[in-house]
């Protein structure tokens, strides 16, 4: 059974700082891994999707990496802004079945 | 292109009642999946529908059910509500039945409160 863990649970940083969010998973038989953003009381917005054969994906100030062998993914946010404040969730899609298995999320606060 | 639409946005029910939530996927998307989000358990998969058939089911009791219509719109139903069913229910859509490398598109959710 896949288990996804995110560290840290919460993070507060000053504006402009670069930061890294961590995601680890127990079963390396993943099809892909996605990073989502969730604003309070809202749905999820997909940020990046890394296929199992890929090592990283980039979108603007965001860069996500994937190391299947070690069961880890990281989300790097460059030059953080107050508008980046949200909960960030990682989710693995398994090779078997189609459901996403989510981590508990990292609550990010960027202070101006 | 309209996103995933979930109605209603908020619901308040009492224990023992039943509730029906609705999800309209992005036009052209045929796969609809449902997730429950609670502070204690996080996001958990409920079920997935594709072409009007349930394709995958999570570990929830039989009180949780769903269906999908020919236009891909989906409903989920919870009968005999319990306090622990209070949660944000999220619906997501995609074009294909997976596993795929498509991104999932989520609606804003229905916040259900059971009193």
3D architecture notes:
The complex is a heterodimer of chains A (112) and B (115). Chain A has 112 residues and is an all-beta fold. Helices cover 0% and strands 60% of the residues of chain A. By secondary structure, chain B is an all-beta fold. In chain B, a hairpin with a 2-residue loop joins strand 5 (42-50) and strand 6. Chain B is globular and about 40 Å long. The A-B interface holds A 31-32, 34, 36, 41-46, 49, 51, 89, 91, 93-95, 97-105 and B 4, 6, 31, 33, 35, 42-45, 48, 55-56, 58, 88, 90, 92, 97-101, 103-109, 111.
Average pLDDT taken over every residue of chain B: 94
Amino-to-carboxy terminus distance of chain B: 37 Å
Strand content of chain A: over 45%
Low-confidence stretches of chain B: none
Roughly what percent helix of chain A? Answer: under 10%
- Overall form of chain A: globular
* Assembly level: heterodimer
Roughly how many Å is the radius of gyration of chain B?
13 Å
Q: In whole angstroms, how far apart are the ends of chain A?
A: 41 Å
Strand tally of chain A: 11
Question: Which two chains have the most extensive interface, and how many residues on each?
Answer: A-B, 26 and 29 residues
Secondary structure category of chain A = mainly beta
